[in-house]
Specification:
With 104 residues, the chain is α+β, with helices and mostly antiparallel strands. It has one helix spanning 67-80, and strands at residues 4-5, 26-31, 34-39, 59-60. The protein has one domain (4-80): 2-Layer Sandwich (Alpha-Beta Plaits), CATH 3.30.70. Bound molecules: iron/sulfur cluster (2 copies). The site of one iron/sulfur cluster has 14 residues, from loops.
Length: 104
């Protein structure tokens, strides 16, 4: 069961998760007019390396934890795949949205 990127990533996209993924299944794009990232559910090997890399805790470790966003990740995969890698934000940089908090 793949890992899933959730709503918290919308408009934040630190992109620190992308470089650690051993199978390069994290892809960038825009969703609802905001920056976003998705995990390709068909390629993710459930290694868990990405989860602690997200400064705001936007990644969950199973579809069951966020079925709605799992569906979004799946649906956006084809469109996001092959897009250029975004610039990585410093992980200690404050989130753009007041609703998000640094988790480490
Ligand atoms: S590190 Fe977190 S906020 Fe940044 S792109 Fe990955 S999931 Fe989104
Ligand atoms: S769990 Fe592993 S394979 Fe899946 S997206 Fe995260 S780093 Fe990549």
């Amino acid at each position: 069961m793949p890992y899933v990127i959730t709503e918290k990533c919308l408009g934040e996209r630190y992109a620190t998760c992308q470089s650690v993924c051993p199978v390069e299944c994290i892809h960038a794009g825009d969703y609802k007019n905001e920056t976003f990232m998705i995990i390709d559910p068909d390629v993710c090997i459930d290694c868990g390396v990405c989860l602690p890399e997200c400064p705001i805790g936007a990644i969950v470790s199973s579809v069951d934890e966020s079925p709605q966003w799992a569906q979004v990740n799946k649906e956006l995969t084809a469109a996001f795949k092959g897009s250029p890698k975004p610039t990585v934000r410093p992980p200690n940089e404050a989130p753009h949205k007041a609703t998000n908090k640094l988790v480490k």
